Amino acid sequence: MAAIRPETPTARTLVLDAPELGSTVAGQHIDIRLTAEDGYTAQRSYSLASATGARPVEVTVERFEDGEVSPYLVEDVGIGDPLEIRGPIGGWFVWRREQEEPVQLVAGGSGIVPLMGMIRTHAAVGSTAPFRLLYGVQDPDRRYYRDELVRLVGPGLRVDVRYSRRAPDGLPVGRIGAAELATLALSPEQQPTIYVCGPTGFVEAIADGLLRLGHAPERIRTERFGPTG
Ligand SMILES: Cc1cc2nc3c(=O)[nH]c(=O)nc-3n(C[C@H](O)[C@H](O)[C@H](O)COP(=O)(O)OP(=O)(O)OC[C@H]3O[C@@H](n4cnc5c(N)ncnc54)[C@H](O)[C@@H]3O)c2cc1C
Known about the structure:
This protein is 21% helix and 30% strand. By secondary structure, the protein is of the alpha/beta class. The longest helix is centred in the last third of the chain and has 14 residues, at 200-213. The chain is globular and about 55 Å long.
């Protein structure tokens, strides 16, 4: 563990040297295994927040109160502590610099992590593919990568945030639904490749909404982080 960066009151970024890790592509994830003194092991997947090929790699972990692994990664593990990791894993939910088509990213909570890897790669390679991010988060305190996203917004990247519980003045409170997908996301006519990531319930609702709007199923890529958040 090379460094640790707090992101929100309940999430932090772990910066991992990980020389054993193969070459990475934005959107992939790694498996982190914890082994207790009695030999009991628990393993969970964490997406790479870092850009394609970047070293050290970064993962951002959200703490689940009654979780087995996330509380340890968010509260206990320290710089210099060893972590058993495996990967990178994944070949479908990835963005590659050769892709020139428009890209629509839709994130729910911690689901922004692999999409941030894609946004960082897009910026690092100077890609001209139009990128849009629609980011659903409970409240402003739970936003990840706030300042960096503000810096990266420009002709190549548009970011819209929607707050489901509390919003800054002037912004509506509400989940990302059909109206937001119709007005804030790229249209089916623009033929974007769409990456949707977050808790299972969020991903399924967004994917359904996109299909109803007329987006082609083969253009929608989904990554579920687990139980309905
Ligand atoms: C491919 C992939 C990539 C992932 N990337 C990330 C990432 O970048 N950052 C990150 O924070 N997590 C990510 N996750 C989720 C992560 O793997 C764990 O599920 C999460 O950290 C909880 O593990 P835990 O051991 O703390 O909780 P567990 O002991 O597994 O579960 C504890 C409780 O939390 C609930 N819970 C567990 N996971 C979720 C969830 N995702 N949403 C809502 N409720 C949940 C369970 O229902 C249970 O009640 C990813 C999952 C997958 C499959």
